[in-house]
Design brief:
The complex is a heterodimer of chains A (about 100) and B (about 550). Chain A has about 100 residues and is an alpha+beta fold. Chain A contains 2 helices and 5 strands, in the order βββαββα. With about 550 residues, chain B is α+β, with helices and mostly antiparallel strands. In chain B, helix 1 packs antiparallel against helix 2, helix 6 packs across helix 8 and helix 16 crosses helix 18. The longest helix of chain B has 23 residues. Classes of the chains: A alpha+beta (about 100), B alpha+beta (about 550). At the A-B interface, helix 2 of A face strand 13 and helix 14 of B.
Amino acid sequence: MTSPLQRKLKISGPTVVTANRLADGVSVWLTAAGSWSETISDAAVGTTGDEVLRLLDIAHADENTAVGAYPAPATLAADGTPQPANLRERIRVAGPTISLPGAA
Amino acid sequence: MYVYDEFDRTFLEERVAEFRDQVARRLSGELNEEEFKPLRLMNGVYLQLHAYMLRVCIPYGTLSSQQLRALGAVARKYDRGYGHFTTRQNIQFNWIKLNELPDAMADLAKVGIHGLQTSGNCIRNTTTDPWAGAAADEVEDPRLYAEVIRQWSTLHPEFTYLPRKFKIAITAARHDRAAIRVHDIGLRLHQRDGETGFEVMVGGGLGRSPFIGKTIKDFLPKEHLLSYLEAVLRTYNLGGRRDNIYKARIKIQVHEMGAEAFAAKVEAEWAEIRDGALKLDDAALDAIRDRFLVPDLDALEDQPAELARALATDAAFARWHSNSVAPHKAKGHAIVTLSLKPVGAPPGDATADQMDAIADLADQYAYGEIRVAHEQNLTFPYVRQKDLPALWAKLQAIGVATPNVGLLTDIIACPGLDYCSLANARSIPIAQKLTERFADEARIADIGRLHVNISGCINACGHHHVGHIGILGVEKKDEEFFQITLGGKGNSKARIGELIGPAVAESEIVDVVERLVDTYLNLRTSPAETFVAAVERLGIEPFKERAYAPR
C-alpha cells in the first residue's frame, strides 16, 4: 500500500521544470546545475516521476529566484536538447505570436 | 473629472510606500511568495506568462488628459511603449519589472490613479456609461454614485476578503452602455414620481456559469444606496460559497437560493441598517458632487456650417461621423468614440505616443477629458460639433478613427494565450484575422451593428457570452479550437448566446464567421434588421446549418 506521504507525479515523456523569475517575471528553466536559464535548451530533462519531483524540489527551494515552478512537457531535438511541447510553452519560449503595438 | 482631496492623495502616497516596502521585503527574501502574492494582487499586480502585469484602475472610466499622459509615460518608461484597455474600463501594462512597479505606481499616484480594487476578492472598480454626463438619454450623471461607491468600498474592512471578486456597474441612461445585467450588482438609475432612485439587479455574471442579473428591488431611493449595497454584500459575504471557487460568485448564491429568497435576506439585513450611518444626505452627495469638475460648455447651436460643409463634401468624414459621433445633451456638442480597433491590430491597445496625442487632442478639442468604454475604445464626451472635421483629421493621423464602432470589426477580445497564464487559446490573432477579412468599410457598414466577442478561456474576459457572435477558445490535444455562440446581448435586454455546435479549428474560424454573416445578409428582412434581431427571429438553426455546411 502506498503511504499518503509518498509523492507521485505522472510523467508521460521528457519534462522540464519552468517558472517565472521573481525580479522581472521572465520565463526561466531549471538547469542540471540547479540554476535558472532564460533558454529552454539549457533545461534539465526528467523522464520519470521521481526525476521530475527531484527537479521540482530544487526549484521550490529557490523561490526567491523564480516563482510558480511547474513541470512542462518537452520534446527532444536530435541533439537531445529540450524544446517546448505545447502551444502554451512555445509562447512562453518565443513570446507573443503577434507583433507588439508600436513595433516597427 | 472627480478631483481627489487631501485624504485620498495621502492615502495613495502611503499605499505606494507600503507596496515599495513589500516589494523590497519580497526581493530580499523576507517575504515568501505565498505571503507576497495576496499583497501584490491587492495592488493590481499579476504574474502572467512572460512578465508581471499591472492593472490600473480608471474609476468609472474617466480620465483627465494629464492622467492619460501619465499612463503613456508609464508605458514608455517602465513597459514596452503600450497599454491595453480592458472590458472593465481599466488599463493593463504587460511587461513591468517587479522592482520598478513601486516607481510606476508612484508616478501614477501623483495624478491620482492606482491599481487598487483591480484584483482580489474585493469590490472592484465600479464601471459605468462612458457617455455619462454627456448622453442625451440619461437621468443624471451616474458617476456621482460610482464615486460614492468608491469611497464606501475602498478598503471596506468587512468586504476585503469576500468569497470571490465583486463587480458593480451603474447606468443612468435608457440605453445600457455599461452591461449592468452581467455584473454582480447592476444599478439602473431612474425616476419615479419625480424622485431619483435605483433598480437593483444582483447575480449577473459571465465566466464558466453565465447568468443575467435578477431585479431584487425596482426602486431604491438614492439616499439608501450604500445601506442597501451593504446589506447585499453582507448577505453574500455570509452565505456565498467559500468551499468551491467555481461556485463562489454571488450569481451562484442567488441562483441556488432563488432571487426572492435572496431578496428577503437582503431586506431583513437592510431593515437593521437602512437609517444608520450609511444613509446618504444631500450634504454628503453635494460634497462629492462639488469635487467633480464639469466643463463649462460653450453656448453653441447644432449643425454648424463647418460640420454641414464637411458632411456634404467629404464622404470619408461623413462615414466616420455617422459611425463614431453620437448626439450630446448640450446643443452644438457631440460625443466622439475613438476606435482602438484598427484593422490588423490587437483590440484595445494604445501606444504611449497615441496616448500622448489623444491627451493633446482632448485638451484642444474635448475639454481635457477622456473616457474608457467597456468595448475597449476611448471616448471624448465633450466635443464642439464645429471642431469635428479638424478633430477627425487628427484622429485619423494617429490611427484611432476607423469607422467601425459597433460594427463587426469593433471586436472585444481578452489578451488570450499570447499573454495570459489562464488562457487556453489565443484571442488576438483571431481578432486580427477577422478585421483583415472584413477590412472593407463599406461592407461592414452594410452588415450593420454586430458585436463579436472573443475569450481565450472559460473565464470569459472577452464577454463572449454576450456577443452577437461569441467566440470561446478551447484547447483539444494541444490544438486551438473555438466554440461559437449566437444571439448574446449585453444591453438592457441582456441574453446569453446559444452554442451553435461543435468547436471549429483555428484555421476555420474566420471562414465560419463569414458564413454566419453571409447567412444573415441572405436572410435579413431588410438592412434595418440587425444581425442579432435576425438571430432572434430565425433561431440558430439556419445559421448552424450553413456555418458547418462545407465541412
